# Entry
Amino acid sequence: MGGFNIQELMSQAKQQYEVLQKKMQETTVEASSGGGTVTVKMDGRKQLLKVTIDPEAVKAGDVEMLQDLITAAVNEAARKVDESMQSTMGGMLGGLGL
# Structure
């Protein structure tokens, strides 16, 4: 079969998957919006870990603006997770010889 060993390839893929899962658990990103008015922390599985809101934003009473800032910060954190995981996966796929 010209050196093509499906079991070896599957074993490598499983190992890479386990490494990726570990990397997702260890990865944390932070993003903010409104010049730091809202800051969020998210892990590599896109689980929101923490939301910090500047008390001045609450005093302003503009709930709609605050909702927009939270949405923007969460979306930016998710984008950062995607970017980090894409970079990790790219390196891992190279290790499989694909």
